[in-house]
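User: Sorry, what's this?
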Amino acid sequence: MTYGHPRPEHTPEALRAALAVVAPGRLAEMQATKDEAFAKAIEWQSLSPVQSWVFRWARDIEIARRPELAARFELAESRLEDEDPSIGEEALRELSAVLDQALRAVRG
């Protein structure tokens, strides 16, 4: 299946360019989390914080570039705080399912 925007490569530059197209309002958040990840990588002497950052943003971009996933995510997120606890629990399960599906897609 093809989507409106191609899946970006897993590089900071490619992810930033893709985010600028699908969710430009999140660019400042992306930069802040990138700075944190790189600082932790230096402190920990490990690339794991950078790898986590890449997969987090690849996952979020995957959701934003796929209208059906974005719609499911937004609907579930809007129901998290419902007065009915069972609706909130179902919303949490749906959010988790969307995040898992997107992460599987970007990991191949």
Summary: The longest helix spans residues 85-107. The mean pLDDT is 95. Helices lie at 12-22, 27-44, 48-65, 67-79, 85-107. DSSP finds five helices and no strands in the chain.
